[in-house]
Amino acid sequence: MLEELKQQVYEANMELPAKGLVTYTWGNVSGIDREKGLFAIKPSGIAYEDLKPSDMVLMNLNGESVEGDYKPSSDTPTHLELYKAFPQVGGIVHTHSAWAASWAQAGRPIPCYGTTHADYFYGEIPCARSLRPEEIEMEYEKNTGLVIVETFQGMNPAYVPGVLCTNHGPFAWGKDAEEAVHNAVVMEEVAKMAARTEQLKTEVGEAPKTIQDKHFFRKHGPNAYYGNAGK
Amino acid sequence: MLEELKQQVYEANMELPAKGLVTYTWGNVSGIDREKGLFAIKPSGIAYEDLKPSDMVLMNLNGESVEGDYKPSSDTPTHLELYKAFPQVGGIVHTHSAWAASWAQAGRPIPCYGTTHADYFYGEIPCARSLRPEEIEMEYEKNTGLVIVETFQGMNPAYVPGVLCTNHGPFAWGKDAEEAVHNAVVMEEVAKMAARTEQLKTEVGEAPKTIQDKHFFRKHGPNAYYGNAGK
Amino acid sequence: MLEELKQQVYEANMELPAKGLVTYTWGNVSGIDREKGLFAIKPSGIAYEDLKPSDMVLMNLNGESVEGDYKPSSDTPTHLELYKAFPQVGGIVHTHSAWAASWAQAGRPIPCYGTTHADYFYGEIPCARSLRPEEIEMEYEKNTGLVIVETFQGMNPAYVPGVLCTNHGPFAWGKDAEEAVHNAVVMEEVAKMAARTEQLKTEVGEAPKTIQDKHFFRKHGPNAYYGNAGK
Amino acid sequence: MLEELKQQVYEANMELPAKGLVTYTWGNVSGIDREKGLFAIKPSGIAYEDLKPSDMVLMNLNGESVEGDYKPSSDTPTHLELYKAFPQVGGIVHTHSAWAASWAQAGRPIPCYGTTHADYFYGEIPCARSLRPEEIEMEYEKNTGLVIVETFQGMNPAYVPGVLCTNHGPFAWGKDAEEAVHNAVVMEEVAKMAARTEQLKTEVGEAPKTIQDKHFFRKHGPNAYYGNAGK
């Protein structure tokens, strides 16, 4: 069932070690078929080198596994909450990529210091608040999703396709699993550059709003003209 | 038309991922045939692994595409202004390489702290001023070129073959596309070393003028004797 | 004798250069057969590319070499003390991996700033005190082991599977040689992230205790549910 | 003539890009035959991928090229002064490796913060003083050698097999070309760790003298017992 989706999600998962975003089995990617209301996600605790497309676990939006030989990733309840709250999202990825996780450990959003950031993320990449003790003790992974949704109240998740979770690490998303991973790679690069920018200038301000607007909207929305191969 | 130039520009573009200067499709290289008044440039939004020499787009100095199946890189108007203003330049490259882009995001020129820098860049690598809102809103990429030209008033672009654009990233150039990429690789290395130098010593000064002169002029100009294979 | 153990210890040693934890011949891994009271360890001064499983040296718990063509690693007396004091440990690794060694050179334990750390190490990774001059001059490598044992008084080495030695570098351990190396890789990653976290926020506190508990105990102990492939 | 020496020097030169110490054609290695009073050195400006053992240039100790199709490295006069002043040295290497060069650009010696350093360098790695303007203008490369020799007055170059040159980069040496490169790799690693150590602890002191002595002399001199394969 949904062999093409499983293949896509498999390939997106394999991009994580290929792009240096994960160590060992850390990280997981999912992708959803909105019509069928099912998403495919990496199984828990399987090494990337042993992973096969058919190992992807199919879940419904009630959080039930409907197909697959393995348990789904332990972070599945987080993915589920994001799919339920963000209807425009088609793929989700979680990693502990080192630069983004360092911002998360510092509990700081990543300011938009330049056009590399503005090409993909409109404004700062937010940092979700710490979970309260009771949110950690019960349904921790579900609450991780809910606190992300809380963070995005009044925001468009298509304009800011990623978030940091305090003391934890990044989640990113996109229209499908491949784009989610693409955005996770960009977030790691942007997190690295922002840290170095602050090292070079203690009192550094965000990039001017006009340049943030220019770069984001030349790539996104109805008037985009950048990176379009045309003919 | 100009198959050799397209081949050179193609190879120079492929050096960007090989040298670790770009992520995904970021970055673009062009090279010019001054006699014919035409330059070849990477097409917009094509992945490096899919790029072929015949995909390079040929442009004239009025900014018109004269050959090619694709749209030219969105940054083409920047390249165009540099070719028009700097007649000694034969190749241009733009990247978001992480160390140079971090200096650009900090809005700081890269001071000449040592001979690695002085071997290639005579004095600091300047940082062009921020564009004004109206320069961003209309003809942004052209204005990016014009503000670089403004930065180099009274300077020799052959002596300082690169620049940072505030909140954006580096441009570099050379006598051809290959040398432009070579200078971009050196700028990234120099940007990394300069950041680390400042980490090691808060109050660090530029390298003495005599050693800057010695290193630059033993490699450049009529009395150069360094790196010349001889026979 | 104990060919399977030697093979495991050989493979764990070869993981050190593969994971980028060692330069040249630095680093050594051992693994123990508790029933026979013998451990296998890397020989001293042999390049990784020349290493063979049969080169592993077999030692008894009196510190005597009982099989092998070479001298055991100079750090063997440290391994020996750890095996004697920590009966639950089945494998030990020592490296000079750069991030962990930098914390050791600073003489600082690595605080638990996030879940990457808490998934593997319960609380801070301690830094053993400096050896006294007389402990350095006589039986230095044995005393290095004893000071680690002293550091873990009242602690469970299965909950904190690694340590820093002041001015020196990290030791890590696990239920076997493979897990010891896995923990050494994680310690290096965690050391890197913790350094960057402090760079991003001067006054950073440890992750809240509840999240440390949650992450450690969802992976370890009787109620673990994370990273278990299930079926 | 001296084909074996040329082969060794060729191989040592090829280690520089393999170990990530050089960009493009930067860096050069030489090795000497003390009986014949001749040293072999990398030719100037030849790309590493095009280098052949027969390209090595043979020089005598008067600084004259006695065999070879190319000009010797521009840094040859520096190598020459070191061979003349340090009779125990059999091989020399110069690079602009990024961490060591950053210390050189900061004009700071590398303090001995730990055992990785003490295993190879006894005490700090010194930083030679800046050359005076007249030393730069005339016979710059020779004077670079002389100021290193000046720095080592009263020191044993076999105990401290490397140096930084202010605003420039590192030189390292050893009993032959291979060991010189080995020491250059270690210096880069040690330079990296020392920078990170200072980032982690502002007021960090050198490693205690007893541990420096222990680590250096367990590997060097008549009582060495470390890293000796034995039998």
Protein architecture, described:
The structure is a homotetramer of 231-residue chains. With 231 residues, the first copy, chain A, is an alpha+beta fold. The first copy, chain A, has one domain (3-219): L-fuculose-1-phosphate Aldolase. The first copy, chain A, has eight helices and eight strands. Chain A has helices at residues 3-18, 76-85, 98-106, 115-118, 133-137, 140-151, 177-200, 209-219; strands at 28-33, 38-41, 57-60, 65-67, 91-94, 127-128, 162-165, 170-174. Chain A has an eight-stranded mixed beta sheet, with helices on both faces. The longest helix of chain A has 24 residues, at 177-200. Chain A is globular and about 50 Å long. The first copy, chain A, starts with a helix and ends in a 12-residue tail after the last helix. The interface between A and B is medium-sized, with 30 and 35 residues.
Write the layout of secondary structure elements.
The structure is a homotetramer of 231-residue chains.
Chain A: H1 3-18, E1 28-33, E2 38-41, E3 57-60, E4 65-67, H2 76-85, E5 91-94, H3 98-106, H4 115-118, E6 127-128, H5 133-137, H6 140-151, E7 162-165, E8 170-174, H7 177-200, H8 209-219
Parallel strand pairs in A: 6-7
Antiparallel strand pairs in A: 1-2, 1-5, 2-3, 3-4, 5-8, 7-8
Helix pairs in contact in A: 1-7, 2-6, 3-7
Function (chains A, B, C, D): Involved in the degradation of L-arabinose. Catalyzes the interconversion of L-ribulose 5-phosphate (LRu5P) and D-xylulose 5-phosphate (D-Xu5P) via a retroaldol/aldol mechanism (carbon-carbon bond cleavage analogous to a class II aldolase reaction).
EC number (chains A, B, C, D): 5.1.3.4
Cofactor (chains A, B, C, D): Zn(2+)
